[in-house]
Write a structure and sequence with these properties.
The complex is a heterodimer of chains A (about 100) and B (about 400). Helices cover about 40% and strands about 10% of the residues of chain A. Chain A is mainly α and about 100 residues long. In chain A, a hairpin with a 2-residue loop joins strand 1 and strand 2. Chain B is about 25% helix and about 25% strand. In chain B, a hairpin with a 4-residue loop joins strand 16 and strand 17. Classes of the chains: A mainly alpha (about 100), B alpha/beta (about 400). Bound molecules: flavin-adenine dinucleotide.
Chain lengths: ~100, ~400
């Protein structure tokens, strides 16, 4: 665990930079976090981030985001290149997704 | 007469039929079990078929051998569950009523989910070993193969028996070494996971073993499509991996019956309370094994441990009492590592696989996260235990809940 100031707010983050308390999340924080990953957030990004926040408890998969009606899987990769689920979870301020065994 | 209905006579359904028939009064409780197949497949045996270690005959027996007298066995395709009316429709329109329902319809592979997978190379140069047909076709292919690029890919998470593809590449390394062409076979393990396995300590141990055996790992590869012309697999983020033979774990889904019943998630797995094993939505429906969405391995050992909990809770439910037993997600998987050795992992919802000994602290005889001959015998003996004890719901000499005894926390 570590302390970090993002968008002027003092936040607790995990070693990998995920917010510990997802209720502290704001759009400003998201923008800062995205910048660190080299991503400029658009409305489309925010639509995905909101979907991710709403479905965080039910368990997320790339497939599920691809069926959200907001983006398809390819589009999801284009918005968050590399590891879309991990990156978008981080920027959405939710816990790191655990892959089921 | 009150009715318990079990859907699916695979590992879980068969165990429950045996346990319940012994426990419940025959005058009071009618028990019925439905499955579309007359043959029981020992699925863990599929892994050995491609390498000629087992043949088809070694992994099949009639289902009827394992269903106790006093249980009605119906062979039919299940159309759907109508939960509002406590009814199940079978293909052809037959209706079964129930007071309590146990869904144990498992998971199956669905190659249609990936564009190009079921193309012209399917079962010619692209194989699965999660079905008996796929495993047998691969055996025939390997018998005369001259070598080249062997790619093992996992299409989607979750999939049943998460160690099976690892075991497959370990056994392939041994097999091609023994037939003398290992230097001509390039083995690559391509996975959507960040490493060889899901949990850190096991990933490290298994990752090192893969390296030792000269098996390449390509992590975080999420399969989009298969190109039959160029013989390549392609990921959503534009990676391409060429193959001469592709062995694959296609997308795993719950049965379509679950979808027709409107009871599943996006992969047809049924939302289930991970502690009580009762359906999240319906009071009188329990879900056992691979058909559920509980966050642990989809494996026979899990089904066996979960069956104990489900049994206790069903007895509570029948009496109108609160559900008393809780499942801890216990999984116990032998991992074949080739050349007569094996490893073993034992874990649950909270505790990742740790090194140590099992089941007796300091004694074993099995070594957790160790590569030993004894662990290999554990796997070999498992087939006997499966047919003769596990399916019949007999007590095994191991703890139902995971135990920390014998495990080392680094
Ligand atoms: C290659 C491979 C290796 C494995 N190795 C191991 C191992 O080493 N250790 C281990 O513990 N586990 C292993 N497993 C996993 C294990 O076999 C399964 O997890 C276990 O059998 C699941 O039991 P189940 O009762 O949930 O489902 P299943 O045993 O698959 O049974 C489901 C049943 O439901 C029936 N059914 C489904 N839908 C319908 C329908 N609509 N109408 C009628 N009938 C239907 C099916 O015909 C089937 O008989 C392995 C699996 C594979 C494929």
């Amino acid at each position: 665990m570590a302390q970090k100031t993002i968008a002027g707010v003092n936040l607790e983050v995990t070693d990998e930079g995920f917010l510990v308390d997802s209720s502290q999340w704001t759009e400003e924080i998201a923008k800062e976090l995205a910048k660190e990953e080299g991503i400029e957030l658009t409305d489309k990004h925010f639509a995905v981030l909101n979907f991710i926040r709403e479905n965080a408890d039910a368990g997320l998969t790339i497939r599920k985001v691809g069926k959200s009606g907001i983006v398809d899987i390819k589009g999801f990769y284009e918005l968050f290149p590399g590891g879309p689920l991990k990156l978008s979870s981080k920027i959405a301020g939710i816990a790191k997704p655990t892959s089921c065994v | 007469m009150k009715k318990i209905l079990i859907l699916g006579a695979g590992t879980g359904g068969t165990i429950m039929a045996n346990k319940l028939r012994k426990a419940l009064d025959r005058e009071e409780w009618d028990i019925t079990i439905v499955d579309k197949h007359k043959t029981h497949y020992y699925q863990p045996g599929f892994l050995f078929i491609p390498f000629g270690i087992y043949n088809k005959q070694d992994v099949i027996k009639p289902k009827a051998n394992f269903i106790p007298s006093g249980v009605n066995m119906i062979y039919s395709d299940i159309d759907k569950i109508i939960h509002e009316e406590n009814k199940v429709l079978l293909e052809g329109g037959k209706v079964l009523n129930y007071d309590f329902l146990i869904v144990a319809t498992g998971t199956r592979i669905d190659p249609e989910e990936t564009p190009g997978l079921k193309g012209e190379l399917w079962r010619k140069e692209i194989f699965d070993f999660y079905t008996v047909e796929g495993a047998v076709a691969l055996q025939e292919f390997f018998e005369t193969w001259q070598g080249g690029r062997l790619v093992m890919n996992i299409a989607e998470l979750p999939f049943k028996c998460p160690v099976a593809p690892l075991e497959f590449v370990f056994l392939a390394d041994e097999y091609f070494t023994k037939v003398g062409i290992r230097d001509k076979v390039d083995i690559t393990y391509v996975t959507p996971l960040p490493g060889a396995f899901t949990k850190p300590i096991a990933t490290k141990m298994l990752g090192e073993l893969l390296k030792e055996k000269n098996i390449k790992v390509i992590p975080e590869f999420y399969l989009e499509s298969v190109d039959n012309k160029e013989k390549k697999i392609k990921s959503y983020d534009g990676q391409e991996i060429p193959f001469d033979v592709l062995t694959i774990v296609p997308v795993n889904k719950g049965d379509d019956m679950v979808e027709r019943s409107g009871m599943g998630d996006d992969l047809n797995f049924i939302p289930t309370d991970k502690y009580t094993l009762k359906s999240e939505k319906y009071e009188n429906i329990f879900v056992l094994g691979d058909a559920s969405n509980i966050p642990t391995s989809k494996a026979g050992s899990v089904v066996h441990f979960a069956a104990e909990v489900l049994f206790d809770n069903l007895l509570c439910a029948i009496k109108g009492r609160e559900l008393r037993a809780t499942f801890d997600g216990h999984a116990n998987c032998y991992i074949e590592t080739g050349f007569g050795k094996g490893s073993l992992i034992d874990f649950n919802y909270e505790t990742e696989p740790l090194p140590g000994t099992y089941p007796l602290p300091g004694v074993g005889p099995f070594g957790l996260l160790q590569n030993t001959k004894m662990n290999h015998y554990g796997k070999v003996i498992f087939r006997w235990i499966y047919w003769h004890m596990l399916l019949k719901g007999k007590e095994l000499p191991i703890e139902n809940h995971m135990s920390m005894a014998g495990k080392k926390k680094s």
